[in-house]
Amino acid sequence: MRPWRLALELTLGGVVLLGLLGLLASRAGAGAAPWVAALALASYLGMAALLWHALRRGPRVRTGLGPANRVTLARGVLVALLAGTLADPALLAARGEWLFTLALVALALDGVDGWVARRTASASAVGARFDMELDAFFTLVLCLALLQLERVGPWVLAIGAMRYAFVAASWRWPWLAAELPESLRRKAVCVWQVAALMLALLPAMSDLLATWLAATALVGLTLSFAVDVRWLYRHR
């Protein structure tokens, strides 16, 4: 086992984040910049710690993260940076297009890591779980940003909290933790919810249209979860 290689790759991800934070600091308010950096770094360190724990328990640590997980980690760096901006609502409001571009790159990478996994035969259960949990955190960050900008009411947090509520429910009803079959519907809903929340964040978007976009994401996600819960209940 060579955990030093895994540690090096995770550290490099942190260095990239620090570089991006340096660029972002010049745009954040003087008093808010340290909080932006602290929240972004805390998000990344939490992600890196969970990934380290998961990979140390499996054979993939011999070759570090692997090609697909490296792409997912790059997406994680961008999501952590976006999470940091939650500490400065003024930055969110003033740099909406710039932050939208970052979110768009993160969304695009969501499709790249799966393609890389298939092309390099580097798919793994840990990688799939990493990708899924990062999707959930990304969604929560976008929901919190919309709430901070007062574009949508507090109900938008139901979108970001749904995955975590589902996990919490599985502690009470273990059958909810069973593996689900692959689903194009689930992937489409995931992409749409992120895209809808990103569009709702654009400064040019009216509050009414932002609310409508977020509402479609909530309805689609609720129905998707309902279908999955029904399938899990019938196969418990």
How is this structure best summarized?
The chain is mostly helical and 236 residues long. Helix content is 77%, strand content 0%.
What would you say this structure looks like, in words?
By secondary structure, the chain is mostly helical. The protein has one domain (3-234): Four Helix Bundle (Hemerythrin (Met), subunit A). The chain has nine helices and no strands. It has helices at 3-25, 33-56, 67-84, 89-94, 96-120, 125-148, 157-172, 184-201, 207-234. Helix 6 (125-148) packs across helix 7 (157-172).
- What is the overall number of helices? 9
Distance from first to last alpha carbon: 37 Å
Helix content: over 70%
**CATH topology call:** Four Helix Bundle (Hemerythrin (Met), subunit A)
What is this structure's SSE topology?
Blueprint: H1 3-25, H2 33-56, H3 67-84, H4 89-94, H5 96-120, H6 125-148, H7 157-172, H8 184-201, H9 207-234
Features:
about 240 residues, mainly alpha, Four Helix Bundle (Hemerythrin (Met), subunit A), about 75% helix
